[in-house]
Amino acid sequence: MSTPARRGRPGYDLESLLLVAVKLFNERGYDGTSMEDLSRKLGITKSAIYHHVPSKEELLRLAVDRALNGLFAVAAETESFEGKAIEKLEHLVRGSVLVLVDQLPFVTLLLRVRGNTKIERAALARRREFDRLVTELVKQAETEGDVRPDIDPAVTARLLYGMVNSLIEWYRPRRGSAGTELADAVCKIAFDGLRTQ
Prior knowledge:
Layout: H1 14-28, H2 35-42, H3 46-50, H4 56-79, H5 85-102, H6 104-112, H7 118-143, H8 153-170, H9 179-194
Helix pairs in contact: 1-2, 1-6, 4-5, 4-6, 4-7, 5-6, 5-7, 5-8, 5-9, 7-8
């Protein structure tokens, strides 16, 4: 039995296709990127792309889900984390920074979606769900006396993640630099200012 011939340009699989698509979506915007643009960038035909995915929308879904799944994995880990709410919150922020560093192009795309498509609206709904988890942790930490009570917990949550999310604008990985150093810096700046003691 012979193996079927591989379609498309050698070296392109779904992962490498997705990486190029996300790079283009981040450069030109999702709406501003066509499958023709993607095929030109890859040097393959559109039909070779369709061998891997049924549509541009599927590429977007795969990309934003990768970022969201990373964040929700950290949130699930945080739920089982032993400790006070402030410690859980710090663990969640630290883990979120590590996800951002590890999945920078995917998180960048996630933070740029505006709700123009069904997939973008679903991603925004999941982001709001994540925001609610953060706000709940802030409320618990406030109840436990570890977070300043004079700031609305939703505002605190937004400010915390505003700082984390701002990393996509300026952070550029360097050889030899560890995401843990960046996570330590974010947590030091954020939590030394939040704690009541």
